[in-house]
Amino acid sequence: MRRWIDVFRFFAVAPPMPLLMIGALVVVTSIAAIAIVVNPQTTVRALTPVLLLQLFACSSGFDVPARRGHYDLLMTRGQTRFQIVTAHWTASALPGVVGWLVLALICEGVRADAGQVSLFSSGTMVAMSLVSTLPWAFTLRLPRFAGAIGWLLLVTLAMLVAPDALTTSIAAGGGAVGRALSDPPGLLAVGRALSGSPGLLTWMQTAGATLIYPPLLVGSDISGSPGFVAVPGLLLAAAALTVAFWSAVRRDIPLEAAQ
Known about the structure:
By secondary structure, this protein is an all-alpha fold.
């Protein structure tokens, strides 16, 4: 237990992302909290900038600082590679998760009735899970922010190649896809908007849209059969996280030669 405490204390003192990123999350969360209190109808949109910053915070990269000797203190004091990588991922995701929890609690406090949007919904949890795992896993062996930049480029290209699949849903507001999937008529509406016909292609394109742009799920309840739309993203996140941990634990990470 002592070794776990030591490794988490290390990343508390030397976080894997720049301190400016933590400051930006604090500022954005504060502004979003004020927006929710003033107008609870902005709840869904208020979480979107936090999710965007979480993309960059979790794209922290592990191999590059490890090769430069930044984690030698941990590796020479008996901490296992698994402990180091776990603490690195946790420290990368924690500021954004705390920001989400703060906004979710404020949202619960200002909700007028049970019918209003909740940031503790299953769709919101899936969105936060995706932006907290995939960027970290994809950036493990790459320079810092590479995963977030690649993800934003993917969103831009998707809007260029298939504009109806994303721009229509984004314009409708976050959570639109998830809310529409909660009943069969909604599923048909999403199907016509995304592919022109309901069916397997509809499901694939809807799942792809929510994977590429997770804020679409914010505020949505995707429990039950509608939840299948989130399965591809969750499976990809689990697979990417597993491969990333295996790669970091099993591989040799040689130090860079002095320049």
